[in-house]
Amino acid sequence: MNKKTRLVLGQVFFWLLITLIFIYLMFPFYWATVSALKTEQELIQTPTSYFPKELSLQNFAAVFRNDSFLRGLLNSTIVALSVTVLSLLIGSFAGYALGKMRFRGKSPSMYLILAMTMFPQIAVLAGLYAVIRTLNLPAIPSMILSYMIFTLPFTVWVLTAFFKGLPVSLLQAAQVDGADMMQTFWQILLPLTAPALVTTGLLAFIQAWNEYLFALTFTSIEPTARTVPVAMALFSGEIARQEPVGEIMAAAIVVTIPLVVLVLIFQNRIVDGLTAGAVKG
Amino acid sequence: MAQTQRQTALTTTKPRAMSELARREERTALWLLLPSFVIILLIAIYPLGQVFYSSFTSARFASSEPTRFIGFENYRNLLSMTIRQLPPKLDEQGNPVITDGERQYETWVRILPRQPRRYSSVNEFNFFGRRYVLGATNAEFITAIWDTVVFSVVSVVLETIFGLIIALTLATKFIGRGVMRAAMLVPWAIITVVSARIWEWILAPTRLGFMNTFLSDIGIGDGNIGFFTNSSLQLPSMITMDVWKTTPFMALLLLAGLATIPKELYEAAEVDGASKIRQFFSVTLPLLAPTLAVALIFRTLDALRVFDVFQVVLGSQRYSMASFAQDMLIANRDVGLSSAASVVIFVLIFAFAIFYIRVLGVDSE
Fold it and tell me: Least crowded by CB within 10 Å, which of A18, A186, B202, B214?
């Protein structure tokens, strides 16, 4: 085998591998889309068809008439947006203090927050549920508050690193101009942290959008507060049948599209945020 | 002399001015940290303490009975185990019963203790020609621990291998690399419940589902493989779903790690005539080790608290540790038992973390 054939074979193998990986990653989406587009009759035929014989949008139409699903979309949007905004606000306060100020008890504070990232949610579930029942807190504010257990530590961690990296000369210049610490924060530092805020905000939003354990538990006595994951898990369809597979797949596509759009627009930022801390240098 | 006096004057006034400023800075810092600490206290530290406390009580939701302190009773109910030998089954003449060439044994119901606690079988196994049964007071929880650990170890190993293959493939520059990277983020970003429902449909137990149709088309199975009903296929199915969802994350972490390895090292290895395989083991793997270690820790700790796929697909048929604790809390309203299970999970995850940090020697930076 000469060098040229080996090179060609290598290329063929490489592209075969790429295609295989791509199919592996994308197949479930293909299958969900195909199933959502099939007609009711085609979905209950065995063996199933790999490609739809006839396209129909009736499943999508049914999903958009499904009140509990639409309500889930609304609830999820409210919860995820609130969690993101609150985490960024509170997290940037803490990040500023930890990244740019000198005070006693700094490293214990850092360790406390870092320890939180390792925290299994299940470990606090019963206690949190008891707190919520005692305070008589409705499910939506409960979710907003409790989701910060996983969004806040990460946000603080990334923003602290970011604030630390900002040059001290900026602070000094602001001080010379007579700005106090909070003015410096709002007017000079916060605008500069915008890229980090976008990254951490996206990750917080996606995590909050996806959360299931707390949502399932807290909405168990308040069905109107169900978020998308709970609505998806308990999905019952419009078109009467044991399991409305077509509608579930249509709903799956509907809730995945916003995430795909976010990922496509912000892929570099998301990758930066995901790998922050895991890779040094 | 005069000069030294001026110097002392300077040094005495300066710290006072500094400390005024420093004190103000310290006050501002504490105010800025206050909201984070209040939230952490309210949603993490207090609830954790509450869970720990409840695990020693008979607390139940919506119960008319007063909550009593019961010591380690919940833990005993969760974790008590025993191993008993199963005697061979004997017929009326006292000879061992043998069907299809296999010796039959007594059922565990007659062997495992019923008083003061009732044990049921987790598993039966042969050891040196004898048959034993592992009994537990809460067979569901013991099975859940075992299943979760197996699930975590197998998932993480497979994810690491696949993740490494994908990362190495994508590390070379090629047309469409951006598309591939976006494609990798999608499984990570998708709601776990949604991916579970899609996989549930792909793996449907009849030829309505893709997998059964495909497998029977290529001559495997009868088209009625119960991926979620056959108990020996349940865990592999869960693992398949998890590996699909989290391999891309692993690959991205490793890809970022690969990007930090200096090109010169490969060039030097090339000059020295090292083969690609040699380069992988002598350059790539050692330099990727820190990233690999961090990724392994993240993923294992994450896998051990798995909840979504188990709850959605298997419900109360078969539990992960977390879905057991949640089900005890909501379906059984047994706050005490659920709390004890949560404490066990917490301790187990903590132990895994310590073990990893010790063995892999990840520095705390």
Answer: A186
Domain definitions of chain B by residue range: 81-137, 140-360
ipTM: 0.90
At B4, is the pLDDT very low, low, confident or very high (cuts 50, 70, 90)? very low
Q: Do A26 and A105 fall into the same domain?
A: no
Residues 1-60 of A with CB under 8 A from B: 14, 17-18, 21-22, 24-26, 28-29, 31-32, 35, 43-48, 50
Nearest CB partner across the interface for B213, out of A43, A47, A209 = A47
Query: Residue A255: its chain B contacts at CB < 8 A?
Result: 191, 194
Q: Which residue has the higher pLDDT, B361 or A26?
A: A26
Q: Do A278 and B260 touch (CB under 8 A)?
A: no
Nearest Cα to Cα of residue B255 among A158, A6, A278: A278
Q: What is the residue range of A26's domain?
A: 15-56
Residue A236 lies in a domain: yes
Total domain count, chain A: 2
Question: Which residues, including other chains, have CB under 8 Å from residue A5's CB and lie 6 or more apart?
Answer: none
Q: Are residues A105 and A151 in the same domain?
A: yes
Taking the Cβ of residue B309 and every Cβ of chain A, the question of whether any pair is shorter than 8 Å is answered with no
* CATH code for the domain of A223: 1.10.3720.10
Compare all CA atoms of chain A with the CA of B173 and give the residue at the minimum distance.
A14
CB of B91 within 8 Å of a chain A CB? The answer is no
pLDDT in tens, B304-343: 999 999 999 998 889 999 999 999 999 999 999 999 999 9
- Quick one: which of B166, B156, B332 has its CA closest to B258? B166
Share of chain A above pLDDT 70, in %: 95
Which residue(s) pair with B90 in the sheet? B96
- pTM given for the model: 0.88
Considering only the top CATH level, what class is B140-360? mainly alpha
In angstroms, rounded to a whole number, what is the distance separating the alpha carbons of residues B273 and B268?
A: 9
Q: Do A242 and A113 share a structural domain? A: yes
Which residues sit opposite B136 in a β-bridge?
Answer: B81, B120
Whether chain B has a CB inside 8 Å of the CB on A115: the answer is: no
Whether residue A40 is found in the same domain as residue A77: no
Instruction: For residues A75 and A29, state if they share a domain.
Output: no
Alpha helices in chain B (DSSP H): 2-40, 46-54, 73-79, 108-111, 139-171, 177-189, 192-202, 210-217, 231-259, 263-271, 276-279, 285-304, 308-309, 321-330, 335-360
Contact between chains at A98 and B33 (C-beta distance less than 8 A): yes
Pairwise CB contact (< 8 Å): A91 & B260: no
